[in-house]
Amino acid sequence: MSQPQRPEKVVVDFRGGVIKPYTRKKEVRLSELREYFSNVEEAEKILLKGKDPLIYEYYEYIYSEAAGNLNLGLTIIYPGKIGKEYYMTKGHFHERDAAEFYFCLKGRGMLLMQNKDGEVSVVELEPGSLGYVPPGWGHRTINTGRGKLVFFFAYPSDAGHNYTIIKERGFAMIVVEEAKAPKVVPNPKYHKT
Ligand code: S6P
Ligand code: ZN
User: Fold this and answer.
1) Ligand 1 pocket, residues with Cβ under 6 angstroms
2) What are the phi and psi torsion angles at 118 (to 5°)?
3) pLDDT of the residue at 1
4) What is the best residue among 27, 33, 58, 70 to mutate for testing ligand 1's pocket, by most ligand atoms within 8 Å of CB?
5) What is the rounded CA–CA span in Å between residue 70 and residue 93?
6) Which side of the chain, N or C, has fewer Cβ within a 10 Å radius?
7) Nearest residue (CA) to ligand 1, atom 2
């Protein structure tokens, strides 16, 4: 018989934006994200200069991959833009019907969601706001502020991640700066199917 699971404590550093303990850390730089931005030429230009800025990083606490558990974590998206488009995460769908929540601790941003029919929904994030991602909705987060965007998340451990749909089709909408303010506009590169 397997060992009974034991309760544990995880501490979130509200200011620094790190959770302790964490079991996995991932850093995502521009070189890994270049095709996700609408202005790929601008991304290439930055990379050709020998720069590869850190766009976001996340820390995950994975207690167990077994169904019935929760994965917890914290994501930090740095401030910046590629062309007019704000720094953002890749975005993904969960493989299984699994919800997720994003609880904003610091900064300003948007949680962009899209279902399989291409319907879009946006939740604005500021400290204290919680964005609920229902099962079946792809999700991406965008930092529209001047400082770091930091949010805490939790989702079922057996959710699984599908990055291919977003990588190949993109989101129907993107978030760009227009007249010094964030604006959600149609993505010229979006492929519905
Ligand atoms: C996982 C959860 C977050 C994201 C992270 C980075 O279900 O939504 O941990 O992994 O915010 O985004 P992405 O799209 O690169 O996984
Ligand atoms: Zn997710």
Assistant:
1) 58, 73, 75, 89-92, 100, 141, 153, 155
2) 90, 5
3) 46
4) 58
5) 17
6) N
7) 153
CA separation for the pair 138, 16 (Å, rounded): 28
CA of 95 to the centre of ligand 1 (A): 13
| Contact predicate 176/86, CB 8 Å | yes
- pTM of the model as a whole: 0.96
Give the pLDDT confidence of 57-87 residue by residue, as tens digits. Answer: 999 999 999 999 999 999 999 999 999 999 9
User: How many CB atoms sit inside 10 A of residue 116's CB?
Assistant: 10
Residue nearest to atom 7 of ligand 1 (CA): 155
Options 2.60.120.10, 3.40.50.700, 3.30.420.40, 3.50.30.40; which CATH number does 11-186 get?
A: 2.60.120.10
Q: Which residues, 6+ apart, have CB-to-CB distance to 46 below 8 Å?
A: 30, 52, 53, 82
Q: Where are the domains of the chain?
A: 11-186
Distance 1 CA to ligand 1 centre (A): 33
pLDDT single digits (tens) 7-65 = 999 999 987 789 999 999 999 999 999 999 999 999 999 999 999 999 999 999 999 99
DSSP state string for 14-72? TTTTEEES-SEEEEEEHHHHGGGSS-HHHHHHHHHTT---EEEEEEEEES--STT-EEE
C-alpha torsion angle, residues 172, 175, 176, 181 (rounded to 10): 140
